[in-house]
Design brief:
By secondary structure, this protein is mostly beta strands. Helices cover 8% and strands 35% of the residues. Among the domains are: 112 residues, no CATH class; 223 residues, no CATH class.
Length: 558
């Protein structure tokens, strides 16, 4: 059986992760070099379609995250800056598309947790390693320096040194604080390597936007009133953020006629053009910062033993830090991840999680991170058998029976303004043959989950999910030795917890959690097969008791 599991993992790993030498991709064209000729724009409104399609389908269920469609580049950095990224708390990062009727009940605790992440010390204070240390700095030189000391740093992960002498297990790559690396291709960490920080200042920052597009030369007026255009080469544009959260673009799918409000935009991959509605003049002149997130994952982990520590990751429209199938010893600590997701997966289905594990995963640590403003989820583990080799129900083992989400620890994190804070599920091969995956020793403790469903994505989804924990209507078996304890559930636009298990306590020890809720769009409190509505203190206590029979605190906020 162990040999069979290993073969299955190897097969899935080949399907889901890429391999090979380092390559580079074409840099994104940051702006149009042409001028408006006065002719009509090449994008016509869809003929015969006066009704706009729903903005979104759920970005959660039934999404197959394939890592094989991207090359195995370490990174492609198009621009390196120093000191240009403001402290997040000094920006309108929490600006909500629509606000709850009450303020949360844990603001002081939340602020302390944010500061614990922001003020965390450098990586060498938390980890030790036996191999080489590479230093990466905006002041470095990729051609002349070896990167083996702070005095001779390299500038990017595209440096020549990594082509001739790739990192090995036990090595560390440290990025200098106050540095900003703008990337058109995500990082694919090598086995057993630590990616962290050194120096002083803001955490090393990675942007999934190739440039700051707040320059009037980037934007051209069209013949349509208040509609501007910019050339960006990418399969999709799922995220546009102005002044670090003052305004977030709302993606439309039906051409220019449905662009009606400031921030509405339409992207045509056929001519690499983004069309934006903005009635206050040239947006590049009006705003100080415009970030256009590309369809990339910041860190795509296809190897074991990877540690990501003390980094700030923003404006990646496909995802933050993702791992492939059968990954072991995956660690993310002391990181900030914000404004993640929004890329189209297929048709109008969009995706985007801050941290994700896919299919079988062993020994995960996600601790002391701040995650906010994700299109979909803060942290998730999930999987899907329907795209695997498949097995029948007549004696041959099915993949799901051999899928394990085991020894996963998610503690001391603050997750805010995402559609879901926590999400986990595993899809069956077919509706008639349920695939029963395993959850073993999952520790979800001492976290704060806040304002789920009040994010930038909430009005761009037809489902408006808004759950602090979302467990999809999928099958698990042998959920055991797991706990959900001492967390803070602080407001959600719908249920605090949506649970697809028939028995929520089965295999889970759930206790000591704190719940704050106020009136929301459907008076929902908890969902277990049906909604347990909440509209005052008494009904909230009743709803919570279905999930946590021994909570630390339950409070209805007026």
């Amino acid at each position: 059986m162990k040999k069979l599991i290993a073969l299955l993992c190897a097969a899935l790993l080949l399907l889901l992760t890429g391999c090979g030498g380092a390559k580079t991709t074409k840099a994104v064209k940051p702006y149009s070099s042409t001028v408006d000729t006065g002719t009509d724009d090449p994008i016509d409104d869809p003929a015969g379609d006066e009704t706009e399609r729903p903005y979104e389908l759920s970005g959660g269920d039934d999404i197959m995250y394939s890592f094989s469609d991207e090359d195995d580049s370490s990174a492609t950095t198009v621009l390196v800056e120093k000191g240009t990224a403001p402290a997040t708390l000094d920006t309108p990062w929490r600006n909500m598309t629509y606000a709850p009727v009450a303020l949360g009940g844990a603001e002081e605790t939340a602020q302390k947790m944010r500061l614990d992440v922001i003020n965390s010390e450098n990586t060498d204070k938390y980890y030790t390693w036996t191999g080489k240390t590479y230093y990466v700095s905006p002041d470095g030189d990729d051609e002349k320096n070896d990167g083996l000391s702070p005095e001779r740093p390299i500038k990017t992960l595209d440096a020549d040194i990594f082509l001739t002498n790739p990192t090995k297990p036990g090595d560390a790559i440290l990025f200098e604080r106050d540095g900003v690396w703008r990337m058109t291709n995500g990082i694919r960490p090598r086995e057993g390597v630590i990616y962290g920080s050194y120096g002083t200042g803001q955490k090393p920052t990675f942007y999934g936007s190739a440039a700051n597009y707040a320059d009037e030369k980037y934007w051209l007026a069209t013949k349509k009133a208040n509609i501007w255009k910019i050339t960006v080469m990418d399969p999709d544009i799922g995220l546009v953020v102005f002044n670090h959260g003052e305004l977030v673009g709302c993606k439309k799918f039906n051409g220019l006629t449905v662009l009606e409000k400031n921030g509405d935009y339409y992207f045509s991959p056929k001519n690499d053009t983004l069309y934006l509605y903005f009635d206050k003049g040239n947006p590049g002149k009006y705003f100080k910062d415009i970030e256009i997130g590309l369809t990339k994952v910041a860190f795509t982990v296809g190897k074991n033993g990877v540690i990501v520590d003390n980094l700030r990751i923003k404006y990646f429209a496909k995802g933050g830090i993702y791992s492939g199938s059968c990954i072991e010893d995956f660690t993310v600590t002391n990181c900030e991840l914000g404004f993640i997701g929004g890329a189209v997966h297929h048709d109008v289905v969009r995706l985007g999680n801050c941290i994700q594990n896919w299919n079988t995963t062993f020994r995960v640590l996600v601790r002391n991170n701040w995650m906010y403003q994700a299109f979909d989820t803060g942290y998730t583990f999930q999987g899907d058998d329907r795209n695997g080799p498949g097995f029948d129900d007549e004696g041959n083992p099915r993949i799901g029976d051999n899928v394990y989400y085991q020894d996963i620890t998610v503690r001391d994190n603050i997750i805010e303004y995402c559609e879901y804070a926590i999400e986990f599920w595993h899809s069956e091969q077919s509706d008639s043959i349920p695939i029963l995956a395993n959850i073993i020793n999952f520790d979800l403790s001492d976290n704060a989950f806040r304002y789920s469903g009040y994010s930038w994505s909430c009005v761009q989804r037809h489902d408006n999910a808004g759950y602090n924990i979302y467990v999809g209507n999928r099958y698990f078996k042998n959920a055991r030795d797991s706990k959900i304890s001492n967390n803070i559930f602080d407001l959600s636009s719908r249920s605090e917890v949506y649970w697809g298990f028939q028995n929520p306590q089965g295999g889970f020890d759930i206790y000591g959690n704190t719940f704050y809720q106020a009136k929301n769009q459907r008076n929902e409190g908890m969902w277990f097969g049906k909604s347990r509505n909440s509209y005052d203190q008494s009904t909230l206590e009743t709803a919570v008791s279905v999930f946590d029979s021994n909570p630390r605190k339950v409070l209805w906020l007026q």
